[in-house]
Amino acid sequence: MASAELAAIFASLDLELPDVGAGEGSLACIDPSTGAALAHLAQDDLASAEAKTEAATRCFARLRLHPGPARGALVREMGERLRAHEQALAQLVCAEVGKGIEEARGEVQEMIDICDFATGLSRSLGGRTMLSERPDHRMFEQWLPLGPVLCISAFNFPVAVWSWNAAIALVCGDPVVWKPSLAAPLCALAVHGLLQPVLAEAGFGDAMQLIIGPDDPVAQALVDDPRFPLVSATGSCAMGRAVAPRVAARLGRTLLELGGNNAIIVEASADLDLATRAIAFGAAGTAGQRCTTTRRLFVEASVAEALTAKLTAAYEQIGQRVGDPRDATKLVGPLIDAQAVARFSAMLAEIRNQGGAVLAGGEVLDGPGHYVQPALVRVPPGLDLDATFGPMEVETFAPILYLRSYPDGELERALAWNNGVEQGLSSALFTDSVRAVERFYSPAGSDCGIANVNLGTSGAEIGGAFGGEKATGGGREAGSDAWKAYMRRQTCTVNGGAALPLAQGIRWD
Ligand code: UN1
Fold this sequence. Notes:
Blueprint: H1 3-12, E1 27-30, E2 37-41, H2 46-63, H3 68-84, H4 86-97, H5 101-121, E3 129-130, E4 137-145, E5 149-152, H6 160-172, E6 176-179, H7 185-201, E7 208-210, H8 215-224, E8 230-234, H9 237-249, E9 253-257, E10 262-266, H10 272-284, E11 294-300, H11 301-320, H12 338-353, E12 357-360, E13 375-378, E14 400-406, H13 411-419, E15 423-424, E16 426-430, H14 434-441, E17 450-453, E18 465-466, E19 469-470, E20 477-478, E21 487-495
Helix pairs in contact: 1-4, 2-8, 3-5, 3-6, 3-7, 4-5, 4-7, 5-6, 10-11
Bound molecules: 2-aminohexanedioic acid (UN1).
Protein name: aldehyde dehydrogenase (NAD(+))
GO molecular function, one term: aldehyde dehydrogenase (NAD+) activity
Keywords: NAD, Oxidoreductase
């Protein structure tokens, strides 16, 4: 994308592109489909990050007293602005992170959806009343605003994941300080520039802050700051391992949404055409750069050959449709940067080295841009998955799908493989068998935060709680009761009587 086009997108949002030009300390925003710089931005330093944190903290004192439904009305207005500018924002997501235009539109739609959801929530957040064991006592719980939330987001969902946090946090009465990925600052600037005025017009402009700065020292200082009772961070397991102990050291709360090493199990009874479509989208969509991307595939032996043939054919077609993410006829855009391409190639070399085979795809396309053909890989036959996953343990953030068959009738084995990695984000089973479904959903079934039957691992709706177990971090964002992470629970007991009966029947007189 040319800089003029980028400036036009910003202008359509009534914003100016704050391009400071190349220079010391400025951040280059790279278009992954060309490798060229789109713009250069000034970065926050410790002093400006401190000022923004302080402003958010001061704003919290007022926002927490603003009625919940009134906060919901602000979030509804934010959703309206997003609706009105969906196309421009999608173009920006597409340009900055290389997501195909249709998927980029879907990402903006997720933002709109969560605003709708949070607006409804703003009239329904509530606690319960419990029966007290003491006469004339009333016991209930209430949920109160928690404080400023630090939201660290990743490049692959540069705006949607922030919005899951921000929309919910704001209706809960919490300001949000956003530290976006340095690979996607333009998306953050645009969304902030579009939505922050909604809050400003209502006198709560400081409830939305944007800090674009390096991890060291800016993000580290934010993570350590006790003014953030909650740090919500999305990214790699390595990032979570760096953030969580720092927040724990000050006894703060974290909401972590980290890596996935997601598997699909295909039983012999499955609709193989349906499975093929779901696997292809899950594994190759977004160029394999979703945390929910399908990375491992376990197929019941008697259909392994048939499914492999269908997938190989699908991958060959997909390989022809890798290219410019702005072109709606393409299915796969570029990887985020040259390092991601290098990791993709290195992993395929390692797999071949260990006796695995690349059945389809796997080529790096000539530049400019960071394009690769999604790879379908047969796991090295010598690798004993009951003992180790070898290279498959690693979440290579690129489109590599590992395929392995399991003996007929041994769903238990496939479930053990599904659960055998350190992450526990998403999982799926393709089957026509009710028994298999019940096994998958039983306490001995999938150990992931997301478990789907006859659909793929990626592409969750916002209405459910999103997140996973084990090294995925345990956090839940977006729908269901994920809002509880953004509030503090208070258990309240009122004595309406004249006596003072003690709990547990204790006598103390
Ligand atoms: C992510 O990759 O961090 O379920 C989020 C999905 C999307 C969200 C992915 N709705 O694939």
